[in-house]
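# step 3/5: fold
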Amino acid sequence: MCDRWDNLDFQQEAANLIESHESQIVGYNQSNLHEGLYKELTALPPYKSPYYAKKKLQLNPLGVTDLRVTGEYYKSLTLVVDKEKFTIVSSDPKDERLTELYGEDIKGISDADKIEFGNNVVQPGIVDYIKRETGAI
């Protein structure tokens, strides 16, 4: 049984769990943007144009800067995972401009979301991994 423990790769298993739940993690980011929030849950600045802000109010009744018109930007968000970290990236051509205007923190998830995900997905997943790989009950 000791040999089984020596061969466990917790970092790789955590990375696998994260990668297999990409839609949930990206969903945290999309939800925060929809609510007009950066990844650390601080508010995005209001739209500069009152006309545009009024037009956007028809699309999002929350009346916040949400970086969404057609939904293509939200759809382009994907997860890049390695053993050390995960990053949310966008393949949308607007990403460069949006990042210039609003900063890198439009992509990512809050510490609270990371804790929730860790408690609800990673921790139970690691326990299952240990049981599966070591034969422990």
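# step 4/5: annotate
The chain has a mean pLDDT of 94.
# step 5/5: archive (pending)
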